Amino acid sequence: MELTAEQRKGLYRTMALSRAFDDAMIALYWEGKLPIFQFGAGPLPGELHCSNGAEPVGAGICAALGPEDMLTADHRPHHVAVARGVDLDRMAAELLGKKPGLSQGKGGHMHIYDPSVNFASSGIIAEGMAVAAGMALARRIQKRPGVALAFIGEGAANQGAFHEVCNMVGLWKLPVIVVVQDNEWGVSTAKSESTAIERNADRAVAYGMAGEWVGTNDPDDIYAAAARAVARARAGEGGTILEVKTARLTGHFMGDQQAYIPEQMKQVDPIPLYREKLIREGVLSAEEADAIEAEAKARMARAMEFAKAAPYPDPSEAFDHVFAGEAA
Amino acid sequence: MELTAEQRKGLYRTMALSRAFDDAMIALYWEGKLPIFQFGAGPLPGELHCSNGAEPVGAGICAALGPEDMLTADHRPHHVAVARGVDLDRMAAELLGKKPGLSQGKGGHMHIYDPSVNFASSGIIAEGMAVAAGMALARRIQKRPGVALAFIGEGAANQGAFHEVCNMVGLWKLPVIVVVQDNEWGVSTAKSESTAIERNADRAVAYGMAGEWVGTNDPDDIYAAAARAVARARAGEGGTILEVKTARLTGHFMGDQQAYIPEQMKQVDPIPLYREKLIREGVLSAEEADAIEAEAKARMARAMEFAKAAPYPDPSEAFDHVFAGEAA
Amino acid sequence: MSRILTMSRAGREALDWEMERRPEIFCLGEDVFKFGGIFGTMDGFGAKYGPERVISTPISETGFIGMAAGAAMAGMHPVVDLAYIDFIGVCYNVLLNCASKTHYMSGGAVKVPMTLLIGTGGGYNNAAQHSQCLHATVAHIPGAKVVYPSNAYDAKGMLHTALRDENFVIFLTHKGTAGVGWMGTPIKTTLSEVPEEPYTVPFGKVKVYREGTDVTITGLGMSVHESLKAADELEKEGISAEVVDLRSLVPLDREGIIASVAKTGRLIVTDEDYMSYGVSGEVITTVTEHDPTLFRKPPVRVTTPDIPIPFARPMEQAILPLAGRIADAARKLMA
Amino acid sequence: MSRILTMSRAGREALDWEMERRPEIFCLGEDVFKFGGIFGTMDGFGAKYGPERVISTPISETGFIGMAAGAAMAGMHPVVDLAYIDFIGVCYNVLLNCASKTHYMSGGAVKVPMTLLIGTGGGYNNAAQHSQCLHATVAHIPGAKVVYPSNAYDAKGMLHTALRDENFVIFLTHKGTAGVGWMGTPIKTTLSEVPEEPYTVPFGKVKVYREGTDVTITGLGMSVHESLKAADELEKEGISAEVVDLRSLVPLDREGIIASVAKTGRLIVTDEDYMSYGVSGEVITTVTEHDPTLFRKPPVRVTTPDIPIPFARPMEQAILPLAGRIADAARKLMA
Ligand SMILES: Cc1ncc(C[n+]2csc(CCOP(=O)(O)OP(=O)(O)O)c2C)c(N)n1
Ligand SMILES: Cc1ncc(C[n+]2csc(CCOP(=O)(O)OP(=O)(O)O)c2C)c(N)n1
Ligand SMILES: [Mg+2]
Ligand SMILES: [Mg+2]
Description:
The complex is a heterotetramer, with two copies of chain A and two copies of chain C.
Chain A: H1 5-29, H2 55-62, E1 70-73, H3 78-84, H4 88-95, E2 119-121, H5 127-142, E3 148-153, H6 160-171, E4 176-182, E5 185-186, E6 189-190, H7 191-194, E7 210-214, H8 219-234, E8 240-245, H9 270-280, H10 286-309
Chain C: E1 2-5, H1 7-21, E2 25-29, H2 32-35, H3 45-49, E3 54-56, H4 61-73, E4 77-84, H5 92-99, H6 102-105, E5 114-120, H7 135-139, E6 145-147, H8 152-164, E7 168-174, E8 192-195, E9 207-210, E10 215-219, H9 222-236, E11 241-245, E12 248-250, H10 254-264, E13 267-274, H11 279-290, E14 300-304, H12 313-319, H13 323-334
Parallel strand pairs in C: 2-3, 2-4, 4-5, 5-7, 6-7, 10-11, 10-13, 13-14
Antiparallel strand pairs in C: 1-8, 6-12, 9-11
Helix pairs in contact in C: 1-8, 4-5, 9-13, 10-11
Bound molecules: thiamine diphosphate (TPP) (2 copies) and magnesium ion (2 copies).
């Protein structure tokens, strides 16, 4: 389960692309929202929860997966989607509400679905837990392989759905990995203000699941823990609660000033750290790293161009897709 | 925390009274329901979940409480209500839907409320968890003493509310005791078919709560564990998940044939066992035990007489009590 | 060949037929393996199909209904038993925000074919938390189909339709109509001749149980049968009532409702759900927004009032929309 | 003295006044300590009242709203912030079966005085899971009062009333009306002169915002303001619209609705909630069951259709009941 140099470059590439995605969206988000802030204004309206800081989780975990595996993400889905290989152009178009978007403009950034890579998300806290477990159950009945992963935040681990689903995962030894992304905050509420114990991974014993805890926001470490969890799941040994200490660098959503975060709790950007590490370990040169970043930005610029140029759906399309199998 | 002989006789008395209550109700329940069974027929209509077998839990735990403590029970509330000292006549009348019933005939057997002894119940699984915790929170804000107890079944421990409430109890160190009455069954589903791990008490570590497990259906043992939990709660040391192996002798509800229970899982009646124990230990003579039982039956006969003789509410009263503080 | 069946047996036949042929169908819910579901729709399925396809769950409704939605997204067609509709409170998000909306939110990329069986209604003294109808609550959710057969023929045909639908279908049955053991002798008008072979009954069409010329009485579930009883009474008094079973709330057959009222000019809407913000208002409005002059007299609602269901029999009987109240309403309308 | 305030500031004043005087009131909800609640109703309360009375909770809605109900039964009056009504899915049981029904199920022995603040509505591209109104869903629950102010004066007065009510009150505010930072410049018609001293606004009375003679337009929350905009337009065209704010869904002022339609003979019901099985049907039925001949023309519903809320602006704007659609409906009614 050791990563090759090439694979580690890949992790860096993935993180850089995810960051490029969010940075581009953040820049666009403010268009039309200044000087008077308003969720509903500008070319990228609505709430926007960016993944800056959480890129190692998406990159590290998705590197341990195969195409048959299934993922659900939450209101902060970009880093997982990018790492999973969700179509970048169509995802960008979806955030802008455009017709070629993944959901034809019906979903927006909290509702990213790409069945071609088994990816779904939802804006309701912990909703994806059961959906992921159900996908795993389906595969078992179908006698097809596949591990299901539910990506949630540490705040979501206090939602009842977490308990119900973990119990069934343990009971039925389902191949499900619950990825608890502990970025320390649920909106303005610190983990210590919301969670009775320090580590959600320790809750695994309540469900007959395995617990894995990764205290670094480093994709190598995250990959290693994920690979162990995936191996167990594939071997029929059941599920894992995999908790990762990660970061939320740009606030809960755009517009969050984060005045509630005390100085000593300021979080560190994991991307430069990983860059330094790879350079230090001789995996990358600074020039290669720069090139990867430039390439990521260029790729994202093309996605943005695609998204901006794309047409909006016709208003009448609002009435399509209410039910499947019916003429609009 | 050793019980005196007098107190142990009291436990026996409580159990006998609870049993007399249920036996009387069971007898009445079948009136009008034979030969064709129908929930809605007879003088005691609706579902009826009896407590036969669970009497030690009510007796043992309530003996450790003071008048300031608060209790919520579930769809199977009789043994807790009797042990808590809920007015027997009015409770019996409530089961029969009579006007002098605790709820004036509006509640029935799953909705037993007696604020004079801080008792409430609900027919929705695990609903009482949060209600109990909220009562404890209220007392903390009011700076008044009081431990809150939520009585649930082992089946209910897999409901999301369990998790959400336990986490807040642990987080805020609330004086709450979650009493998990493990009678092995949730309707027809065995605990091993519903619960990923063997003991719900072990889930306490997920919440920073204490766990207590009582493997006997013996009120002395249950009392001892409850007394420890109550002492911790009163001392500000927080909550406990107190799980007790108990019994469900008369099926999930009346009409349940229990054909799904294999021979080797047949459960034992705890009342004769305790009687034998007390006689063996010289606390009671057989005559005294007989007298206690006879007294319990006589008391219950009076309650039944009261309930039967009581008038039904007028149909128009259905419109009262929809809102407080308003003329009917 | 056809036989007289209860709704319970008829529904079971449809599910069995589909399960035999379609491996993507599986059953999920509390006690379904041993008890066969609240209405016996899965009776004996545990033994026949095994624990992989007939799965008894913990008491974790958000969990297992959400899992059903996930399984549906992954190519299965789950049939979930929720027992009583009163329990939607603990799993409402799955209905409201997940199973119903995922197809739309994905722009059609994801489908969620699943059938949720739920029992409704009171009348047997099970009090405020086990007697509700709440069909309006689920029918108000966009993206969910909601159907509600009231007799054996429709139970089988509509369940076939539901199981072949690519969407989230909420399949309601009033407990008192199903013909299960714990509710006593089945109501005659719920029984019907049921063909052995499979057939479908389309959603979105009312069923005219009984034609009439003086007054239209609409109902659904149990209130259809109370309406039929009332119509029998009224017939003796020379009042000709047309009894219309809505059968399907989403889609709703607005034309069917209007056509009947256009004929009779009088409307009584019966409904065991709470009165306000529900089905009764929707039915009356359906006619009114089409043409209020169709009403020769103001339409009347005979429903459960906006109060919790009381336990005691004298109170519960008084507040349910039973035949007596319906017939009285009709008499007043004709006076 | 009175000042022009936003709904947010006005509501905050009521809660502050009551909290200063009544130790049984306390606040509970996600992020309320630091953020002061979705509408700033508790803005600064963390510092003022401390963490014992302004309690930020985990993301555990069933847990903390259920705890609020328990605290209410034990003598407190909790004020709970649920942020978005879309989240009722994860805690609906507390609303449906506990807080609303306990008083009744206990035969009046137990009271549950609590106020649940919830934000509703869309119009700012927050998509299907964060833009719903669902006020009909909560108004269909017996035993819960449901109120819905649309301007600052009512926000303060109705919150005083809620806090003095002995019952479970669901206090709705459309996000777009509150005047909070993240929704842009406040809508003029939501602002009002608000007295500094406390006062109550009774539940169950409509508010006639603007008198008119040709057509009655009812609305609630945001749709009141869209109706007012439409009425301005219509006035220029010589159509006199009466704009009626329902303000309170439970109790509902049926007389007030009927009185307005009796005057104008025409009715447009605007509603940002889904159309079917909701408020729009209830309002029309209220008039129809009283007297269908009051309608000179069939009444018209201008609502969000029965579809999930789409994200993209062109689609969302097209399906919301905005002033343009309302005015068009009025023009057709007058043609
Ligand atoms: C059931 C539900 N409750 C509340 C919310 C509002 N909400 C959205 S994100 C969020 C915080 C989530 O925290 P966490 O799970 O830690 O994820 P993070 O935002 O830190 O990535 C909240 C409370 C919601 N969307 N759904
Ligand atoms: C939310 C909810 N789901 C399902 C039910 C139906 N139900 C009533 S009692 C019961 C079994 C409860 O088992 P347990 O908690 O072990 O209590 P016991 O009956 O054994 O005392 C079920 C499933 C319910 N009342 N509420
Ligand atoms: Mg977080
Ligand atoms: Mg049990």
